[in-house]
Design a protein that fits this description.
Blueprint (H helix, E strand, L loop, with lengths): L4 E5 L4 H12 L3 E6 L14 E4 L7 H8 L3 E4 L6 H6 L1 H20 L6 E7 L23 H20 L3 E6 L1 E3 L11 H10 L4 E4 L5 E2 L1 E3 H13 L4 E5 L5 E2 H11 L6 E4 L14 H7 L7 H16 L5
Parallel strand pairs: 1-2, 1-4, 2-3, 4-5, 5-6, 6-11, 7-10, 8-13
Antiparallel strand pairs: 9-12
The structure holds nicotinamide-adenine-dinucleotide.
């Protein structure tokens, strides 16, 4: 059982709160750093300590160094690609300045903790790469969000080389599951589940043949914990390697929710990526990672969670 503090930035958010659950179950003493901008106080599991701070603020390095953490999971982020396009400076403030404040705090800390960072496998690779995409494919992001994630990986590499802080950059595919915000732009399983339970139409851009790699949040947490426990180094794709098109996803949600929702096709989004799936051979080999929740099982858990929470949470 680890005796030192484990920091989880973004621990009040969707993925972070599930990660904190898993760490507490393993006996970690967890401190969550979160400004509650998209995360929720009630999502921070009992047993974890919440420090409400904006990582981009100047006092962050001091707070971080005083925690003398033995392990750090860095999930706090501005995660909207659209917001990053509308306001690249805002994105950089949170996703770059926030990271640098955290790393400067760790550099000044008594320990040199391992850092597990949530990067992206969806927004980091260029067009025309092999599908499923391996980690050594050309990284050529086309959004400020993707640029910030790639830059973060380079900064982490710098801190490793020069200051001896080891890191793993986990390039996540399209994560879904209970607690995902159904009002965001990206959580299509959450959006579809929510609407299907209301028997409202599910809106699909274009023909709906565009594919994504949907990975269940429990499997993502498993990969993050494995990376920490194995003190893994470098970049790892985390997904399923399975391509699912939007039409199939929508039909799966409708069937599982026993919904009468119709699928409504609207104009295709110009420039939308047509195919995405991650090659997870490296995570399988190095981390022993193997996603265990298939799409039907994951959608079932997600729909059931929304069914239960919708009776208490306003939509
Ligand atoms: N959800 C996905 O499909 C997906 C895919 C790839 C990568 N990721 C990455 O995984 C991480 C977690 O994503 P999520 O889906 O759980 O998002 P989320 O929005 O639910 O969680 C992010 C958390 O960070 C907090 N936060 C934001 N800005 C902050 C700041 N300046 N200071 C302190 N806390 C701040 C938010 O309040 C929230 O609790 C992010 O780094 C995201 O980029 C997510």
């Amino acid at each position: 059982m680890p005796k030192s503090t484990t920091i989880v930035t973004g621990g009040a958010g969707f993925i972070g709160s599930h990660l904190v659950d898993a760490l507490l179950a393993k006996g970690h003493a967890v401190v969550v750093l979160d400004d509650l901008s998209t995360g929720k106080r009630e999502q921070v599991p009992t047993g974890a300590r919440l420090i409400e701070i904006d990582l981009a603020d100047a006092e962050t390095p001091k707070i971080v160094s005083e925690l003398s953490a033995g392990l750090v999971f860095h999930l706090a982020a501005q995660k909207s690609v659209r917001t990053s396009v509308d306001n690249p400076a805002l994105d950089a403030r949170i996703n770059i300045q926030g990271l640098l404040n955290l790393m400067e705090g760790l550099r000044a800390s008594a320990n040199k903790p391992q850092v597990v960072f949530t990067s992206t496998g969806g927004a980091i690779y260029g067009d025309g790469v092999a599908i499923p995409t391996p980690e050594d494919a050309l990284a050529k992001p086309i959004s400020p969000y993707g640029v910030a994630k790639l830059s973060s990986e380079h900064y982490l590499d710098y801190y490793q080389q020069i200051h001896g802080i080891q890191y793993a950059a986990m390039r996540l595919a399209n994560v879904y599951g209970p607690r995902q915000d159904p009002k965001g732009e990206a959580g299509v399983v959450a959006i579809f589940s929510n609407r299907a339970l209301d028997n409202k139409a599910l809106t699909i851009n274009g023909a709906g043949t565009q594919t994504r790699d949907y990975v269940f949040v429990g499997d993502v947490v498993d990969a993050l914990v494995r990376a920490a426990e194995k003190k893994a180094q470098g970049a790892f794709n985390v997904g399923t390697s399975i391509e699912t098109d939007v039409n199939t996803l929508a039909a799966t949600v409708v069937a599982i929710a026993k919904s009468s929702s119709q699928l409504e096709h609207i104009a295709a989004k110009p420039g939308e990526q047509q195919r995405s799936a991650l090659d997870i051979s490296k995570a399988k080999k190095v981390l022993g990672f193997s996603p265990s929740t298939d799409l039907a099982a994951g959608v079932r858990q997600t729909v059931e969670w929304f069914r239960e929470s919708l009776s208490t949470v306003s939509r």
